[in-house]
Design brief:
Elements: H1 5-14, H2 19-35, E1 42-45, H3 50-61, E2 69-71, E3 80-84, E4 89-95, H4 97-100, H5 104-112, H6 119-138, H7 141-144, E5 145-154, E6 165-167, E7 174-176, E8 181-183, E9 186-188
Parallel strand pairs: 1-2
Antiparallel strand pairs: 1-3, 3-4, 4-5, 5-8, 6-7, 8-9
Length: 203
């Protein structure tokens, strides 16, 4: 199967080509176009899989520090989150599983291949994997999942001492005013924002 050179190199480094690896490459290519590269982009993922691995390799290769890529420790309404601090832009990506995952019967077939020497089953499974990879590489990015774009900025605080704390308008937690973020016009603490708290542990 012919695939783009960059994806081929990723597959060589991983030792195999999977649909998730192809998906990570497609997502990375789109995000690079939006942000003109990945050098300053912080990335968070809901799951640790080949798609995250592809983003990790491409991110580091293009100069993004490994510390800016994290796996979320809590449940999130997105599969990948991207934050570009220089522009204050946040991209949330939600996967369309129908167009990006193998069917349950093919997954079950793959799970049984290690236990049986079944050439017909192996061929059927590989054809399904190849077909899904080609689909991921060739359909519109909107068919793979949806990107949601937001504007996010840290609130500047000039409050005098003693007036620096308040309750988060979203969750009610007491926070310092300087820790509030504005996202598309509404205010919230870091936990309520669209950002990933792990990005800011060392900042």
């Amino acid at each position: 199967m012919l695939v783009p050179l960059e994806l081929s190199l990723l597959a060589h480094q991983r030792g195999y080509l999977s649909p998730e690896l192809a998906l990570g490459w497609r997502i990375a290519r789109h995000v690079r176009e939006v942000f003109d590269g990945l050098e300053h982009v912080r990335i968070a993922a809901r799951r640790n899989n080949d798609a995250l691995m592809a983003l990790s390799i491409l991110s580091v290769k293009l100069g993004n520090p490994p510390a800016d890529l994290s796996r979320s420790r809590t449940s999130k309404p997105w599969d990948f989150l991207f934050y570009h601090p220089l522009s204050g832009t946040v991209l949330r990506w939600v996967q369309n599983k129908q167009n990006t995952q193998l069917s349950n019967d093919i997954v079950a077939l793959g799970d049984r291949l290690d236990c049986a020497n079944d050439t017909v089953a192996t061929i059927r499974y590989q054809r399904a994997v190849d077909a899904l990879i080609l689909q991921i590489l060739n359909v519109s990015i909107d068919m793979l999942g949806l990107f949601y774009e937001h504007r996010c900025r840290k609130i500047k605080c000039d409050a005098p001492r003693g007036e620096d704390s308040l309750r988060c308008p979203q969750c009610g937690t007491v926070v310092f005013r300087r820790d509030l973020w504005e996202v598309d016009g509404w205010l919230g603490c870091l936990s309520c924002s669209l950002l990933e708290p792990a990005w800011f542990v060392c900042h």
